[in-house]
Amino acid sequence: MQKIEIHAVKMVDLAAIMRIENKDFSAAEAASPQAMAERIKIIPETFLGAYLGEKLLGYLVGPAIRQRYLSDDLYQRVTVNLPTAQAPYQAVLSLAVAPIFQNQGIGSQLLKTLAQQAKRQRRRGLTLTCLTKLVVFYQKNDFIDEGISSSKHAGEQWHNMFLTL
To answer: Domains along the chain?
Structure first.
């Protein structure tokens, strides 16, 4: 059996990324193909995919940011990953796994890989927002629920989740 490998996605993966994105997120929550393409170009080092051979099973993406919690503008426009002194937090904008590969630890592997990378860069922590139904998943991955986010993204109520590194 092949081993799942985690590494940076490539532009050739965009169609597979969008298939997974649109299965895992509502139309209001999902990023556009243009937004995902921009993220691949601008922050490739923090746009990670989980692969079985050449097949993309899931991905995680987010920029390094200045503030502890995500702001809605991050979903609209991404900026380059700044050095740790200027951006001490690693954000996660999207974590998605193809439905047939869910509940196999792939999302957790992606989070662990990004956390290890962020720790090597001496970032303070990983930060993300999630819906109530996903709080337990992130808590199982050592994130702390720090309360309701001020985010209005997609008209949903989000929880601020934080993992100290």
So the answer is: 4-164 (3.40.630.30)
